[in-house]
Amino acid sequence: MNSEIDVGDAASLIRSANRILVIGCSGGGKTTMSLQICKRLALPFVSMDRDFFWLPGWVNRPKTEERALIAAKVAEERWLMDGTGPSTFDLRLPRADVVIWVRMPRMVCMWGVISRVVKWYGHERLAMAPGCPERLDWQFLRYVWNFEQKEAPKVVAGLEQHGPDVPVFQLKTRRDIRALLDLLDASA
């Protein structure tokens, strides 16, 4: 996994990409940044949660149906796909031109999740499926708290297995995100 791409090179790769995968822990700012990139580059926004994972009432979509929907979407020529889900890297990575890994510190992600819940509790966010109002539970907080320890190794393994030649750019601070967006603005 190549994570040593500098922000200038990343902006250039992103600007020329037709298919961008944005991954990372919940609450890190993936969706906010993804929407900004889509706006700047006129890319269709695809949310893994909204478009594939969830049915109304927080019901998981059956895996076979989920994978069929993902396969159809990744076959399209242009998209930005927001969501981690390493179990579907086999479908998504071979079609991605670049991966942006929003890899914020644990406390930034926790703050992001709590802030999001305060803002949206009981209402549906843009990136969430209809009939899935914002909520919070201990299982989800544990997932966020343990992301780097438990989930990041799966992400790294999936990137190496299914996208060894796909450039991966890691953003580890809000300043990194701002720098990337500023460079994309400067090229517009």
UniProtKB/TrEMBL annotation:
Instruction: Extract the InterPro entries matched here.
Output: Cytidylate_Kinase-2, P-loop_NTPase
Q: What is this protein called?
A: AAA family ATPase
Species of origin reads Rhizobium tubonense
Taxonomic placement: Bacteria, Pseudomonadati, Pseudomonadota, Alphaproteobacteria, Hyphomicrobiales
